[in-house]
Design a protein that fits this description.
By secondary structure, the protein is α/β, with parallel strands linked by helices. The protein has 2 domains: about 100 residues, Rossmann fold; about 70 residues, no CATH class. The protein is built from 7 helices and 7 strands; from the N terminus they run βαβαβααβαβαββα. β1, α1 and β2 form a beta-alpha-beta unit. The relative contact order is 0.16. The structure holds glycinamide ribonucleotide. The site of glycinamide ribonucleotide has 17 residues, from α1, β5 and α7.
């Protein structure tokens, strides 16, 4: 079995979709969900879906080996599904080309520090883009700059609000993220 750890900071709709997709999968299994926020909704979702879950402080993520040890004893790959913190060097070293992120825009556009969730969709709206999309990519030491594995696009019309854009992006994420993970890992 290939075991996955999902790291997430928010609502966890992607995490839930991935957990459901790999439920009873013959080769891939979600081993745990980890967050940097105790109150993140994703932890409730993991609880309801009977997946081991845990929150660690920002300090534990950035300065200690605790989180990496926890992950290494449980997971072969790390999936970032709306995770807010920058991935620290010790985690990158422990999981070379084994950390996969989803970004809600067409990288290299709208990537980098501060580009998370709604702030991405607002920036897409403000620049008058006619299309946006999702990017699934490996993580390296720079924000949003690792090798791109997959992109899918959706049109943006003048009357779309950032919320409309977010809804379209979520549909793309729900359709593609688990399948892309499956293709890359098998
Ligand atoms: C997703 O749209 C994901 O692409 C984005 O956060 C959202 C989390 O939603 N990730 C980033 O912005 C990473 N820079 P969810 O908690 O409902 O899955």
């Amino acid at each position: 079995m290939i075991k996955l750890a999902i790291l997430a900071s928010g609502t966890g709709s992607n995490a839930e979709n991935i957990i459901r997709y790999f439920d009873r999968h013959p080769k891939i299994q979600v081993a745990c969900v980890v967050s940097n926020l105790k109150e993140a909704k994703v932890l409730e979702k993991a609880e309801n879906l009977h997946i081991e879950h845990r929150a660690f402080s920002k300090q534990a993520f950035l300065e200690e080996n605790t989180v990496v040890k926890y992950l290494q004893s449980r997971a072969d790959f790390i999936i970032l599904a709306g995770f807010l913190l920058k991935i620290p060097g010790n985690m990158l070293a422990a999981y070379p080309n084994k950390i996969i992120n989803i970004h809600p825009a067409l990288l290299p556009k709208f990537g980098g520090k501060g580009m998370y969730g709604m702030s991405v969709h607002k920036a897409v709206k403000d620049t008058g883009e006619t299309e946006t999309g999702i990017t699934i990519h490996f993580i390296n030491e720079n924000y949003d700059e690792g090798a791109i594995l997959f992109q899918a696009k959706t049109a943006v019309s003048k009357k779309d609000s950032p919320e409309d854009i977010a809804a379209n992006i979520h549909k793309l994420e729900q359709t593609h993220f688990p399948e892309v993970i499956e293709k890359i890992l098998t």
